[in-house]
Amino acid sequence: MTTDLIKHGRLETTVPRAKELRRLVDKMITLGKRGTEHARHQIEAYLYQPKTVVPLLMGTYAKRFATRSGGFTRVLPIGNRKGDYAPMAMIEILNPDQPEAEVSFNYLVRSLASMQLNEEMKIVDSAIKPTLDPNAVYADKRMFKRALQEHQSKERFALKVRKALKNTNMSAEELQKIVDAETIHVKELREMESNAPLQRFVNDTWPENPPSLK
Questions:
Q1: InterPro entries under this entry (predicted)?
Q2: Is CB count within 10 Å lower at the N or C end of the chain?
């Protein structure tokens, strides 16, 4: 798995394995940055496919992380696996040169697109600076506490958005254009999922020439 992660840049696995992979891959990249013959022998002794992996570690990743002393990977929880309900995660090797290509940025864009589709409004500006309505009236302390917790959750999400803008050197307008395109894609996917049972019925009823639902 360490070899595959170095080759492909990201893997989906269980959380415990992802944490162990992070330790091993960080160690291999550190060896690759040393660039010595002894480091090469250590890499070849541990990893599969050394002809493919060694040039990546001593070339691509050594240049990418030349000014970075550690923390070359990121682990993102992605929910639980069906069947045994094991906690799953996506582990990826960071790419400071192209942070917009990282999984975390794509997840953020998808989250913003879903929010925009549900609230039917441009979402980036409000996501960056969430506000708590000062004129809101609450029936009891429980409702006020719930509203405060929701606002705190929005503040944490806003911090992620601002960090993503800083890492990618994007403006809010540029991010909004990406979110708009993703919103259209998410809308199309939802429409396809909602029409799936009907489409199966149509295909079963007219197997040779089914009518289109569009």
A1: Ribosomal_bL17, Ribosomal_bL17_CS, Ribosomal_bL17_sf
A2: C
pLDDT digits (tens, 9 = 90+) for 182-202: 888 888 777 776 666 666 666
**Ranges of CATH 3.90.1030.10 domains, the chain:** 2-94
Do 158 and 91 form a contact (C-beta atoms < 8 A)?
no
**C-alpha count within 13 angstroms, C-beta hemisphere, residue 21:** 25
CA distances from 150 to 48, 79, 100, 124, 145 (A): 47, 21, 27, 17, 9
Is-contact 92 103, C-beta < 8 A? yes
The end-to-end CA distance of the chain, in Å, is 44
Closest CA to 92 of 77, 109, 74, 116: 74
Examine the pLDDT at 147 and tell me if it is beyond 90: no
Q: Which residue has the tokens 């019925």?
A: 201
What is the homologous superfamily of the domain 2-94 according to CATH? Ribosomal protein L17 (3.90.1030.10)
Beta-bridge partners for 14: 88
